[in-house]
Amino acid sequence: MSYAEYLSVHSTQKKPFFYGAAPSMRVVVDINHPADVHFFKHFIREMEKRGHVILITASSKEISFRLLDSYGFAYEKLGSYGKSLAEKMMNIPLLDIRMFHVSKKFNPDIFVGFGSIRAAHVAKVLGKPSINFEDTDHAVWEHRLYVPFTDVVLTPLCFRKDFGEKQVKIDTYKELFYLHPDYFRPDASVLADAGITPHETFTVIRFVAWDAQHDHGQTGLHNREDIVEQLEKFGKVFITSEVPLPDTLKKYQIPVPLEKLHDLLYFATLYFGEGSTTAAEAAMLGTPAIYVSSLAGSLGYADDLEQKYGLLYSFRDQEPALKKAEEILKNPDIKEAWKTRKEIFLKDKLNATRFLVWFVETYPQSFRSMQAKQPYPGENIQRQKKEEYDGKT
Predict the structure, then answer these.
(1) pLDDT at 15 over 60
(2) CATH code reported for the domain at 3-170
């Protein structure tokens, strides 16, 4: 469906939500990375149910367009930033201009993005507010390009950087925008698709490209064939990779569509990889996660999952990480232990999508409320759930 067709058939029928309804809004949601599609998909659907009109703008990175298509979203293609620093610097103003033209025609009330440089720029030029979520502590280059222009930066409570008065810290994670149990339901058919029997031991390995600006100079896993060989001793191994795999490893590439990766992670015995987001996703799904990167110890959300909840292990070196993997894979009760830890973790955290719907619908009052340390309606519900859980344990 084209965006014009979407506008022509979009319903303005509102549906109730736990904190009431708001006048219809026109909202630009910007997609800059495949993870952003997951991040915003429930927010978009919930906002549309409530009668708001959404314009999705998207740049080309890896499988972003494919994911948007798989979820049936109409969107405007803006192009690609490229991979090198020179390409990115040249294309930033170009994508800004393209987004400006489509956004001006749409006449939005507000912009929403995830660390979106162009959304912050275009919103400022159009005189509209912009809200950005951020969880990457070391993305200094990106912060300099968008934070001065955005109106609000939402960050997890564990985020270490201080953006001043425009920052709002919330007790949740970006992954809970799409993996919160109110929205995510694991599909067990993925096991048959991958040729796995129920309760069979298997590991998901993740290799990353290290081409993001904030990843330059960072390192992760080496001797990839050796990693697969060691982990394969305990069960099947599946690889998801941002870079082409050598012929020796192609047979291990995950045999299911990437949009089913979260289902596969849910049932996996272990996640082992360089990707911090995928490590956090696995941990929040109740799968032991081992994150191997020179960035280990520098990410607030990864440290929180490790130190406070025991759901994730971070290593800078591959060898101790493999020893920990062996220890986990030898434990037949490991998934049950992680299930208990996951439940404790989830009782502590807000439903991130519901929070964002409330924050956008009631902005700027919501911003002033959070700055004044006043609770938002969903916090009362979250507190009741936690008290009920604590009373049973």
Answers:
(1) no
(2) 3.40.50.2000
Span of 74-88, 131-145, 207-221 with lowest mean pLDDT: 207-221
**What CATH number belongs to 189-347?**
3.40.50.2000
Q: Say if residue 12's pLDDT is above 70.
A: no
* Secondary structure tally for the chain: helices H, strands E: 17, 12
**pLDDT for residue 211:** 54
Q: What is the DSSP string of 84-140?
A: SHHHHHHHHHHHHHHHHHHHHHH--SEEEEES-HHHHHHHHHHT--EEEE---TT-H
C-alpha to C-alpha distance for 130 and 148, rounded to whole angstroms: 11
Structure tokens at 35: 């993870």
The C-alpha torsion from 243 through 299 and 285 to 199, rounded to 10°, is: 60
Angle at 344 between CA 264 and CA 378, to 5 degrees: 95
Q: Residue 195's pLDDT is what?
A: 96
**SS3 of residue 184 by DSSP:** coil
CB 232 within 8 A of CB 196: no
Pick from 275, 245, 299: which is nearest to 289 by CA? 275
CA distances from 91 to 165, 178, 210, 234, 361 (A): 30, 30, 19, 46, 32
Average pLDDT for 145-151 = 98
- Mean pLDDT on 294-307: 89
Number of alpha carbons in the 13 Å side-chain half-sphere of residue 1? 15
270-273 and 110-114 beta bridge pairing: unpaired
Using one digit for the tens of pLDDT, what is the confidence trace for 325-345? 999 999 999 999 999 999 999
CATH 3.40.50.2000 residue ranges of the chain are 3-170, 189-347
Phi-psi label, residue 332: left if phi above 0, alpha if psi -120 to 50, beta otherwise:
alpha
Facing residues of 131 across strands? 112, 152
Element (H, E) at 341: helix 334-348
